[in-house]
Amino acid sequence: MLIFSVLLIVPFTAGIFILSNESGKLLQRQIETSTTQTIDQFASHVATLLKQVEDIGTQVMSNRTTQEWTAMQLNADTTQADRVLAKQRMREFFSSYAVNNSNGITISAFTERTGGLWTQDNSYLLSEWYSQYKQKNIRWTNAHKDPDQADLIMTAREVNSFLLPLVNLQSLREVGFVKINYPTDVLKDAIEKIRFGETGRVFLLSLEGKSVLGQDFGGNREIVQSGLASIQTQYSEQTSGIIPIQREGVRYLVFFRKLPDQDWMIVGEVPKVELYRQIGNIRQTLLLVSAALLLVVVIVAFWISSGITKPLSAMARAMKHVERGEFGAAVKMMPRVRRGHSEVGFVTRVFERMTDRLRYLIETEFETNMRRKNAEYKALLLQINPHFYNNTLEIISGLAAMKREDLVMDATEALGKMMRYSLNLNNDLVRVKEETDYLRDYLFILKLRYGDKLTVTMEEDPAADRLRIPKFILQPLIENAVKYSLEKDGAAVVSVTTALEDDRLRLTVRDNGIGMSAELVRDLMAEVRASESASILNSEGYSIGLRNVLSRCRLSYGDSLRFQLDSKPGEGTAMTLDLPIVRG
User: What digits encode the pLDDT tens for the residues 417-429?
Assistant: First the structure.
């Protein structure tokens, strides 16, 4: 279920993210392009109007009426009547331009001697626009009011002007300048209609950062000034562009378009979040749609999980308990599926019936196997006793023939203690100490029989004395060790060791006997690993003691039994039983 969800949600989420990101970039480029185009359109409108103003100035300058008036201004002998008549023709000429022009353009001329053409005063000498013209040769003025107009309506409104020297073309002498006025509102109304976002605005600025059209900056002055400073320093070579600016934690975008002929600049500013609000709305819509789709997917996935995945997962956990033989836990873990004819319900019901049947069969087989193992174990014990008694009776018979009544009494006492120990079949497990005490009685009898030919050493670990082991697993090993050691050279050296190491009990019997062939060693180890206990009962005496011990240990410990058999022909045998600890 988790993998399914990850494989579904991750690609879907990645797709939504990529789609949202790419669509956002596309919309961002489109918005920026649209904004730039809007500014370019206004720049084109400004350029058209100003080109018209320049053309009017050129026409006025080259007109005969203007040239006649300039000539009279230069000729000191001209009569006053001629001067008045020439001025009247100039006024009529300028008025005709104003009447015929749809943009409300008006024209005026100024000389230092006569002042303005319409007012005949020199107040213009104190104006800022005139100062800029004379000192810096700035011909395009900012918005201002000009009293030298043909009527009062024109004098009341703000105008922008284009100034050019008034020159007599014949003598090339300058007598003043011509001032071409156009209403500020012609451009101001157009630029104020341009809006970016909710609060973004566009301004027409001079290089000094002053508003050409007398626009109110409001709270945007600092942003505009920062953008203008960046344009003049970082983007001085570019005619247009977009500048990111951050102010008081708010990110702004500043658009600019230079008008190099007038040394003006169109600058627009807008908070970035407002300009790209449409992108945010689209992303939010995509996220809401994706979240709704994911919710539907999760609901469907949980529905599938409750009907298919969860029952199968529960059944898989139940199978693990069955594998370990924990049938009760498996039945508790069995899923509860809905009624019907679904495949999951059919599989679950069949598996439940199969589990019940398997538990019954295993319990039956276990009981049968336990009875068989118990019978095998009792048979092995009964097999030990006759073998040992025969050897012991031979020893006592020999002592009696030798008239050794004292030793016969000691041997009989030792035999009695051994018989009481061996005939007690109530407990299959005995303490290590009980087994070693039994071995001492047994070795006492063997020592009586073989005398100096037999040397036995016992090394006992007191920590192992109270541990429990199967009965009679050391006596057959010692019996074989003595028997096959004497066959070799008539002297037997046997050692018995008990030790508690690495939380396991190690019992070792070592001799100097004839040893065993590698083939016999392999057969014995294979029989023990295959749990072939029946082969012990059916054997004809060859290595019966060793086979008996290994088979009984296999019955008692199962797979926990470890043993090591080191034997070479003529070099003796070392048998080590590595047993799990059983306390009691």
Answer: 888 887 776 777 8
